[in-house]
Amino acid sequence: MSSNPTCPTDESARAIRTFTASARPVDLAFWLDRLETEKAGAEFAKLDRARQAEVFGCLPLDLQAELARRVPHQDLVRIVAGLNADDRVDLFNRLTPEAQVRLAQDLEPKAQADIRRLAGYAEESAGAIMTSDYAVLDADMTARAALDALRQQATGSETIYRSYVVDADHRLIGSVRLHALVLAAEETPLTEIMETEPVSVTSDTDQEIVGQMVARYDLLAIPVVDGGGRLVGIVTHDDATDVMEAEATEDFQKMSHVLPFKQTMRRAAIGTLYSRRIVWLALLVFGNLFSGAGIAYFEDMILAYVSLVFFLPLLIDSSGNAGAQSATLMVRALATGDVEMKDWRDLILREVAVAAALGATMAAVVFPLGAWRGGVDVAITVGLTMFVVVLIGSLVGMSLPFLLSRLRLDPATASGPLVTTISDAMGVLIYFSIATLVLSL
Amino acid sequence: MSSNPTCPTDESARAIRTFTASARPVDLAFWLDRLETEKAGAEFAKLDRARQAEVFGCLPLDLQAELARRVPHQDLVRIVAGLNADDRVDLFNRLTPEAQVRLAQDLEPKAQADIRRLAGYAEESAGAIMTSDYAVLDADMTARAALDALRQQATGSETIYRSYVVDADHRLIGSVRLHALVLAAEETPLTEIMETEPVSVTSDTDQEIVGQMVARYDLLAIPVVDGGGRLVGIVTHDDATDVMEAEATEDFQKMSHVLPFKQTMRRAAIGTLYSRRIVWLALLVFGNLFSGAGIAYFEDMILAYVSLVFFLPLLIDSSGNAGAQSATLMVRALATGDVEMKDWRDLILREVAVAAALGATMAAVVFPLGAWRGGVDVAITVGLTMFVVVLIGSLVGMSLPFLLSRLRLDPATASGPLVTTISDAMGVLIYFSIATLVLSL
């Protein structure tokens, strides 16, 4: 590991000064993020101008927005002017309308134009996450002219490793690797070096698709074009990685019955966590009323065979678990593009085999328990029920994501809760129905 | 979107030929992967040599291993020799020992040495996922000499965008961006251009940490050093992205009570899915016996107040759901590095507040239901129980990942099942204990 410190050696003012002077901007940003917001503001104010500019862009957006309210106006203008175009517009969108007006009037026209253009895109689209920091070349250049142009355009960023070739209308017609330019003979026409028909996305493409394509083609960056094929921005690989991580986190939240939220777990407010968690918790109560109604319907049987109740949680849990296994595996497979809608038929056939095997095994496990608690009749009831509810639970769990996708609903949102509710209700009905059959014979 | 086809227009031989001739290697590989293995082998054999070499490295490892068994030996040697070093060793590790010997003896000494070296690293470590395709420069070069050296070393890969500077012992002392080399005056010493103390990892670092660091520092690649600081390989950003996606998929599997498996959902065999799912399903049955025992203990009460049973699934489900929400959010936060072990105290205080609010709301929802079903006594019992089990379930769910981490166990593996089991057992005990108290007053 590098010897650059990633945090101060202790809490003393001297150790902190040493750290803030020598740490990498990313590490300094991480350390600031872990402080109380007031302390973070105080420490940020102590940094010199250059350092502030370096560090600010590395801070999480939440903290950027907080600091933006605390730093003097001229400092903010200077910092914001130095941000990457995509980071700048993200911060801008977080400010109050008054703060936006105050800030915009002091920015350079180019930065103002950037913000106007980038802020107009739908959230979580390619347009919303792209940056306008990229290198363009004309199709009629030579390799030498192209390298000269890149030297002119060169920023601190790594985006010149792939430059984009446009025609007179700024339509994307090719991309060039810096590597190829450096290796080519100086008078080679750019059109001979460039790769034609580069992979690209339109500005309204969903960010999850953008991330999948960057990963699929191992790209450093993916160009973004408008409806007319004109180049409007690029999404870099690191931003694509951040998108994929955020999308996965969102799916984890949805699968555990939490309405998605953007704040980090560390910073989320009590109110946010409450409101995002209570909705499904409460809705699931009503879902449970179905199983409760089923139990009420069979109350006489419960009085007659109280030992049946012993197995109730076990059966509906097993059904719910099997269904949750299927649902989660399928939601993830659909999200990563591993599985497509048309695969459903083959997958359901395989799931029948797997679920039948699981159900049979579970029935065999539970049969002796049933015999021990209530005799052979209870054993048969419980075993038969286990087989049926595990089989049906798995099939329902596997099919729900496809069904929700077909209905243009997000599979991750409802698969978890629906699987649980359906398993519970179905489990109760099947259990007591089978019990009625078996115990009446 | 680009007009390069990503799949044939129809199933005719002519459409397929057009597609295989014009598609990008990545897209051709995706299409082959979706075919039956035999058909994929047949179509692969029809491609010309250059195409085969291009496409093979883009195929998923499973399919590479399958094709390796089917293609003629000399073709395999040629293809394997052309792979990236890290892809080559991954495939090699999948072959049977006999196939490995056959293949190795026909490879170039350099490729053989690569395989020997890379194959020796522990699975899922930096050493196992790194490649030896990288550019090295000597510290005493000038910018011009460095560019010349890079032209010599230039491969088709993009890894020369960042080259690594080593001393006489091959110890990593700096890294250089191609960008900086191109812009610098020709006689500038490399030591003035290079960045010292670059971020790096050791070869035994876990792959998940490697991925986190590449994402954290927005790196194109991260150098890997051995115990003595000598450069032994690099992990590129695209491989890091693949690792993060695989790690997230693994966490999804674990959180839904599935033992992790590497095969894609589309290709996984019935036996694999069965064995990975049955273990927790069966273990959870035994966990459920605790709650069953609790129910058995209170059988007299159930006979006396049968309406209590109506609320049993609802209560233990709510407790389990609340616990699963907490556990999942915390496991994900720990996995992405958002939250650290030392945050536990602050987080538990916040969780108490959130869980109390959730529990109170849920109790208010369920109280009128209890009154409707069984009168005020049942309403009080059910409301009080709901508050307690949601509160405790949440706290347990939030704490388990920290506890498991502290015990050096993987938090994702057990958090899901343990939360469910604890919620069930605890829910039953608390419910009937409160009922005993309330209904006896």
Automatic annotation (TrEMBL), chains A, B:
CDD domains: CBS_pair_Mg_transporter. SMART domains: CBS (SM00116), MgtE_N (SM00924). GO terms for cellular component: plasma membrane. GO terms for molecular function: magnesium ion transmembrane transporter activity; metal ion binding. It comes from the Bacteria. The keyword Metal-binding applies. Residues 130-192, 194-250 form the CBS domain. The chain crosses the membrane at residues 278-298, 304-331, 352-372, 378-404, 416-439. It is found in: Cell membrane; Membrane. Keywords: CBS domain, Cell membrane, Magnesium, Membrane, Metal-binding, Transmembrane, Transmembrane helix, Transport. It is a multi-pass membrane protein. Homodimer. Acts as a magnesium transporter. Belongs to the SLC41A transporter family. PANTHER family: MAGNESIUM TRANSPORTER MGTE. This is Magnesium transporter MgtE. It comes from Thalassorhabdomicrobium marinisediminis.
